What does this fold into?
Amino acid sequence: MAKKEDLIVGLDIGTTKICVIVAAPTNGGIDIVGIGTHPSRGLRKGVVVDIDATVDSIKHAVEEAELMADCEISSVYAGIAGSHIRAFNSHGVVAVKDREVSPSDVKRVIDAAKAVSIPMDREVIHVIPQEFIIDDQDGIREPLGMSGVRLEAKIHIVTAAVTSAQNIVKCANKAGLNVMDIVLEPLASAEACLAEDERDLGVCLIDIGGGTTDVAVYAEGSIKHTSVLGLGGAHVSNDIAVGLRTPFDEAERVKKKFGVAAARFLGGDDVISVPSVGGRRPREVSRKLLCEIIEPRIDEILTLARQSLAKEGLEDRIPSGVVLTGGCSALDGVADLAEEIFETPVRHGIPSRVGGLQDVVRGPMYATGVGLVLFGASQDRENTRFRIRDDSIFGRVKQRMRDWFFQFE
Ligand SMILES: Nc1ncnc2c1ncn2[C@@H]1O[C@H](COP(=O)(O)OP(=O)(O)OP(=O)(O)O)[C@@H](O)[C@H]1O
Ligand SMILES: [Mg+2]
It folds into this structure.
């Protein structure tokens, strides 16, 4: 097996599947060269709850990807999600030292904006500059070298529960992998699915996965809002399993085959056969009933996503509309229901902007994985201006532990 140092690997630890995507950087972008997926058994609502089961799934997915890409995987960009994620905007101001903005001024203003109190049990995952303001000129994306006396920065800070972030690193390490960086899943999915002009005009990305629904809003080319809801397609399947008294796996199957997001989108009505539990005989149920079970849950997920926008006053700032991705967005009629709820155009987002084996990743469930390698590629090219990351998770955690010891000495 060849060891190819320059390959970029994304590890999407999802609630229903673990997905490993291997990409090779090219002149203009990246080529997908391998993919491995394995069902995920150790997560709940996007958070690791069983380390051994997760490590096992990661190993299987990595093996598959290694075989396909003919390489040995040693380090990955890992995704993080879950309802423990909190994100907020912050603001900092400094005086420009020599009347011309230097890298140290930019660092100082970001440090000033970052100076908010973060509880001990939370870790900063991302610090993303949204825009800079020099004197009264706003909307500046690249302040370096500009003249002025006062420099302001608006930034988006994402924090996660330290334990959840550590568990992701722990699982990857136990599976023999180094974690280069932890990336918020909605940011990764947005990287894979959104076009530049959509981000400039204003757009909302919703990734409906198995256990979480990730929301990211972009306007004026930069991130304005991110949130993670602890609801997804697995809840829909669970409702079906309970409502139709059928095993969970059968509920998954009928959902994918016959499910529609709302009963009113059904043309006619057919009868479907649904296996029962406990060895009882299969039952015939109407497809309309199935859709009546699905609708309230999808409605709840999309309504909560809309409310998270409304809370930030962003409902009117997405003229490009909504982009739906994630496995559950493949459900028939989801886009129509989303159009009704958001009262704006909705399109399906599938990973684009990549070459190579692009056909194998052209599914909404691969948006996060592809986004992770795109994120990795932008890091590799030292294009880190807009993605200033905090110190490594473990570095900071170690420092905190040292601080505790000093306190007790
Ligand atoms: N054709 C389909 N129709 C309806 N639902 C589908 C279809 N294909 C996949 N799904 C659903 O998508 C969900 C899985 O999506 P995805 O792979 O994006 O989740 P995940 O990344 O594992 O989880 P998460 O991101 O929430 O941690 C499952 O609930 C599955 O039932
Ligand atoms: Mg996912």
Summary: The domain at 86-161 is CATH 3.30.1490.110 (Dna Ligase; domain 1). The first strand starts at residue 8 and ends at 13. The chain has a mean pLDDT of 91.
